[in-house]
Specification:
Blueprint: H1 2-27, H2 33-47, E1 51-57, H3 74-83, E2 88-89, E3 97-105, E4 108-117, H4 123-193, H5 208-211, H6 268-282
Helix pairs in contact: 1-2, 1-4, 2-4
Length: about 290
């Protein structure tokens, strides 16, 4: 008779352990903290002779009843703070036996689950309670880690998108600065070597980098001044040319001898006659 009761107890314990294994798998299928704690609360009565009294999560500040409503129980809240992550008895309940179990994991504890009973449970039931609390604490910690990983991944995606946008703007700025630098160097080289007519022919080496692949109109550089006419540099006109200044014919030197006066007639002959008259009066020959 005693062996039969013992075998029956072992079979019942094995069945409870199998249920705990199944419950652990259910808790790890992506549920949130509240859902995991609700599974643990509902499993206390089915695995042991105890009943759940209250629960508390470290991620939340409210003490909750087994049905999920908020409890106003200052004595129990103070007792859980005093335990500070350890298991301990609770004397502020109407149950003959009550105990608070910390939902511990590797990184600490995730909260508390308070259970009570009319009498102290057996060692087998206490063992099942401890296993249930460990599985619940592990599932809560894993869920919290997954949630933080998802939040971190979302932040990284946002930062990567912003970084890619910034890189695109920087690349566009670099391309624009490189184009400006080449244009400046080309114009500086043309100004330093002299602006000949051939240097501004379309497709020439110094200007094709400024005109571009599209073959657009070539603008007159600022150092060449304004065009002669408004339509000289239209879009259909050819490249501007520089014309050499016109050379003026040399002027002849003026004759220093005075010309005939207004009363003189006969031109040069009259001048010679005048000189002869002057010589006769002086007594000198006129030849």
């Amino acid at each position: 008779m005693g062996n039969a009761l013992r075998v029956r107890g072992l079979r019942e314990q094995l069945s409870h352990l199998s249920n705990l294994l199944t419950l652990s798998m259910v808790m790890s299928d992506g549920r949130d903290e509240r859902q995991i704690l609700a599974l643990a609360v509902s499993s206390v009565a089915s695995l042991t002779s105890c009943r759940p009294l209250a629960s508390l999560l470290t991620s939340g500040s409210d003490l909750r009843a087994p049905d999920g409503r908020v409890l106003d129980w200052p004595e129990l809240t103070t007792r859980l703070k005093e335990l500070d992550g350890a298991d301990g008895r609770v004397t502020t309940t109407r149950s003959a036996w009550a105990r608070a179990y910390a939902l511990r994991a590797v990184g600490g504890h995730a909260g508390y689950l308070v259970v009570g009973a009319d009498a102290a449970p057996s060692k087998d039931k206490l063992f099942l309670l401890r296993v249930l609390m460990q599985q619940t604490g592990r599932a809560l910690t894993t869920t919290a880690l997954h949630r933080r990983d998802r939040e971190t991944a979302g932040e990284l995606r946002t930062l990567n998108a912003r970084l890619a946008e910034t890189n695109d703007r920087l690349a566009a700025s670099v391309i624009d600065l490189e184009r400006r630098r080449k244009t400046h160097e080309t114009l500086t080289a043309v100004a330093a070597t002299g602006a000949g007519e051939g240097r501004y022919q379309r497709g020439s080496a110094p200007t094709h980098r400024i005109v571009g692949r599209g073959g657009g109109p070539l603008r007159q550089p600022a150092f060449l001044g304004r065009p002669e006419s408004p339509g000289a540099l239209s879009s259909n006109a050819g490249p501007p040319t520089i014309r050499a200044p016109r050379r003026r014919p040399p002027q002849r030197a003026a004759d220093p001898r005075p010309g005939p006066g207004p009363g003189d007639r006969g031109g040069p002959a009259a001048s010679r006659g005048t000189r002869g008259a002057r010589a006769g009066r002086s007594g000198a020959p006129s030849w």
